[in-house]
Amino acid sequence: MSDKCQCTPAAECGLILNEDLLWEKGRPGRSSMSVPESGVPAASLPADLAGDGPNWPDLSEQEVARHYTRLSTWNFGVDTGMYPLGSCTMKYNPKINEAMANLPGFVNAHPMLPAEATQGELQLIYELEKYLAEIVGLKASCLQPGAGAHGELCGMLMISAYHRHNKNKKTKVLMPETAHGTNPATAAMCGYSEIKVPLGPNGALEYATVEKLMTDDVAGLMVTNPNTLGLFENELPKIIEMIHQRGGLIYGDGANLNAIMGYADLGAMGIDVVHYNVHKTLSTPHGGGGPGAGPVAVSDTLLPYLPGPRVVKNGDKYEWNSDLPLSIGRLHNFYGQFRVLVRAYAYVLSLGPELKKASALAVLNANYIKEKLKHAFDLPFDQPCMHECVFTDAKQAPNKVSTLDIAKRLIDLGYHPPTVYFPLVVHNAIMIEPTETECKEDIDGFIAAMLQVAEDAKNDPSILQNAPIKTKVQRLDETTAARHPILTGDMS
Ligand SMILES: *Cc1c(COP(=O)(O)O)cnc(C)c1O
Questions:
Q1: To 5 degrees, how large is the angle CA 450–CA 453–CA 456?
Q2: Which of 119, 220, 341, 449 has the least C-beta neighbours within 10 A?
Q3: How far apart are CA 465 and CA 461, in angstroms?
Q4: Ligand 1: centre distance to CA 99 (Å)
Q5: What is the mean predicted confidence (pLDDT) over 329-338?
Q6: 196-252 pLDDT, tens per residue?
Q7: Ligand 1 atom at minimal distance to the Cα of residue 147
Q8: How much is the pLDDT for 288?
């Protein structure tokens, strides 16, 4: 097959072993178990169930174990090495979180048990909600939403419920050009049209621009701070005050909270609702389509609209309260991704006030990388950044080397590529977010790899144009893979 490792002989790839499809490996009659012969006479299936059945390959246990273990070595994760994927905060997830989430009491707790039998779980929910609200300086929080985008939906439904309750006719939402794609999508799902807000020359919102666009039918502003360029929105408090005076509310996209924990008081800033991405900021597992969580924290204004039911403390007992007349209702079955939230709780408790240091180090690391690379790569906004910095391929483009080539070459040098072509406001963006968990040696290694890439782009662009060469598969046809996925063993 053409997408196999190009090393000949394959052994040149060392211990990154080739692996066939299970259908190519299977041999009729192989089995992963040996059971005694049955003493019960064979019976045939009813006619409507009979037939050939699915085309599963016959495999031994060892073949299955090796298959998946080999495949796992082709991949890259935060446990493999530095993963500077901007906007995603791919920090290392401490293993203590896993141990806590796997405590038998949590694993075996049935979601339909009554409150008397789940006091520990309810206490965890109650306390984590308190801590999350405290970290951002807001009134209360709710753990139900299952992802950042789900938190956005929750927040915008609350804003919409608030306006409906107060008989405000609102049809539009202000949306900075830097907004993540989920923001306009969420606004649209809640029935709002968007007013795009252009950025100022320093990459941030400007009061005068927002003020001009603010009208009586605007429900509010959705804003990410620091924004998706990794820049702090300095004029935000003034902007928020103006929007509040004209009857709008503020949705804070909290995906970038890793830059400001313990430093920025979102309550004092005037944010009405913000979501957490626990799989970014609070070190729960990230990506792969697995469960994450997107709790929201709210100001006094939106408190009555939070999803329900809510955990309350009555004396020293925890109970469910469903008497919430203005609540937008339930957003998730039971109480969200409970064991993801256990990991977030373990992380918050193990760091405590040190969460502030995590933010400080994340910002320091990003600025260090920015300063070390800005002579070799085009830096569109040359100013102090927060937890991530954005370059482009403008210096390499004259040699026919693109952002994608730079990203692919980094793989050969042992690093996961940064985020590319996002944010959309920067042409051919390369967005680097080191996070706080990388040590100086690893960050220096990444910087050296980036400088090597810049040198190669000057001296021999073909090295970049043909990268990666040391991976099991090379450049994939991503469009066909997405449009015509082959999900069975049938390769004909
Ligand atoms: C990641 C991200 C989101 C969406 O969060 P999910 O948890 O992936 O749904 C929203 N906004 C920004 C700025 C993000 O980086």
A1: 155
A2: 119
A3: 6
A4: 26
A5: 91
A6: 999 999 999 999 999 999 999 999 999 999 999 999 999 999 999 999 999 999 999
A7: 7
A8: 59
Which amino acids bring their CB within 6 angstroms of ligand 1? 87, 147-149, 180, 182, 224, 228, 253, 255, 277, 292, 294
Distance CA 419, CA 392 (A): 11
Q: Quick one: 111 exposed, middle or buried, by C-beta within 10 A (0-12, 13-18, 19+)?
A: exposed
Residue 289 has pLDDT above 70, yes or no: no
Domain boundaries, the chain: 96-352, 354-478
**Ligand 1 centroid, distance to 174 Cα (angstroms):** 18
Name which of 10-14, 147-151, 275-279, 432-436 the model is least confident about.
Answer: 10-14
Fold entry, domain 354-478: Aspartate Aminotransferase, domain 1 (3.90.1150)
DSSP string, 361-402: HHHHHHHHHHHHHTTTSB-SS-S--SS-EEEESTTTGGGT--
- Separation of CA 228 and ligand 1 centre (Å): 10
| Distance separating alpha carbons of residues 412 and 472, to the nearest angstrom | 11
Tell me the residue type at 445.
G
Residue nearest atom 3 of ligand 1, based on CA coordinates? 148
Ligand 1 center–CA 111 separation, angstroms: 27
**Among candidates 183, 251, 175, which has minimal Cα distance to 213?**
175
The CB-side HSE value for 290 (13 A sphere, CA atoms) comes to: 9
Check pLDDT > 90 for residue 440. yes
**Could you tell me which of 420, 416, 403, 414 has the C-alpha nearest to residue 454?**
403
> Which atom of ligand 1 is least distant from the CA of 152?
10
Cα distances (Å, whole numbers) of residue 358 to 201, 257, 293, 447: 30, 11, 20, 21
What's the token pair of residue 238? 């003034």
Percent of the residues in the chain that have a pLDDT greater than 70, as a whole number:
95
pLDDT of residue 490: 59
* Per-residue pLDDT, 473: 80
386 touches 366 (CB < 8 A): yes
User: What is the pTM (predicted TM-score) of this model?
Assistant: 0.90
CB neighbour list of residue 129: distance below 8 Å, 6 or more residues apart:
140, 141, 142, 143, 295, 311
Topology of domain 96-352, CATH: Aspartate Aminotransferase; domain 2 (3.40.640)
Among the atoms of ligand 1, which is closest to the Cα of residue 151?
Answer: 9
Atom 8 of ligand 1: nearest residue by CA position: 148
Three-class SS of residue 45? Answer: coil
Q: How far is the CA of 185 from the centre of ligand 1 (A)?
A: 12
